[in-house]
């Protein structure tokens, strides 16, 4: 799936950093890559825990220079709360950060590229997995 704007999850950006050619080919066709603020936090955590934090931070900054950072606002919190409540009612749990990321993706109503199958638990997401079919 290609399009004008998409949101990338942490695991897809990591695949780009690993120079995964299949993922790079798919992402290269996208006009605007969007990165949720929570994803940026996860990437920075990975950088700080790496053997070379300075190099990893530069890689992140270089990537961000060609991306749009998606911030949170009051509407995001409402979508987050509704999403988490729906998951609790279904008896389904996904990582807390991923509920926030899903809320941002729902708010933006954009395709969301991820390799995490648990996002299927969130109603309304437009999911795409450039690594395999989910």
From TrEMBL:
It holds the Pfam family PIN. It comes from the Bacteria. The keyword Magnesium applies. InterPro entries: PIN-like_dom_sf, PIN_dom, Type_II_TA_system_RNase. Keywords: Hydrolase, Magnesium, Metal-binding, Nuclease, Toxin-antitoxin system. Residues 4-121 form the PIN domain. Its cofactor is Mg(2+). GO terms for molecular function: hydrolase activity; metal ion binding; nuclease activity. PANTHER family: RIBONUCLEASE VAPC2. Belongs to the PINc/VapC protein family. This is Type II toxin-antitoxin system VapC family toxin. It comes from Flavisolibacter ginsenosidimutans.
